[in-house]
Amino acid sequence: MGDRAQEFPDNPERFNFFPCVLGTEGINSETSQWVVEVGKAKQWAIGAVRESIERKGYLNIRATEGFWVLQLMDGEYEVTTTPKTILPLWKTVRRILITLEFSLGKLSFYDVDSMEIIFTFNYPFSEKMFPFFLDLGQKKSIKN
């Protein structure tokens, strides 16, 4: 990321407000795992999203909108349940294992260093899911 917004053509698959990234491979049947190193970042959101999520404008990052996400916001770990759930983690998490068990409808987050469970969403996923990454510490929106 540079000091100024970059110009990009408008693409229906591109997010245009927050700097979000989706994994390239969609998941719709098997179990899939990935590790995210958040390091010392102060604000982030990671997890999985359904293929049909809204990508234009301000994102309403909630499970009811297709975002099953663990995030660090204002020094608190929270998950995107409705209402949101604040997680009482007693230590800073640097690396997180995310496991999506599509057919079982489970998305779980683990602290890689201790392999302790952080949180599990239980939801009957009905469409292709994609790994989701968002650096909320960015000050700029994406310009189309």
UniProtKB/TrEMBL annotation:
Similarity annotation: Belongs to the ohanin/vespryn family.
ATP-binding in keyword set: no
User: Known PROSITE patterns for this protein?
Assistant: B302_SPRY
> Which InterPro entries does the UniProt record give?
B30.2/SPRY, B30.2/SPRY_sf, Butyrophylin_SPRY, ConA-like_dom_sf, PRY, SPRY_dom, TRIM/RBCC
Name recorded for this polypeptide: B30.2/SPRY domain-containing protein
Q: Which Gene3D superfamilies match?
A: 2.60.120.920
Q: Which domain of life is it from?
A: Eukaryota
Q: Cite the source lineage.
A: Eukaryota, Metazoa, Chordata, Craniata, Vertebrata
Q: Does the keyword Protease apply?
A: no
Summarize the protein's role.
Answer: Neurotoxin that produces dose-dependent hypolocomotion and hyperalgesia in mice. May directly act on the central nervous system, as it is 6500-fold more potent when administered intracerebroventricularly than intraperitoneal.
For this UniProt record, the keywords arranged alphabetically read as follows: Neurotoxin, Toxin
Q: Which residues form the B30.2/SPRY domain?
A: 1-144
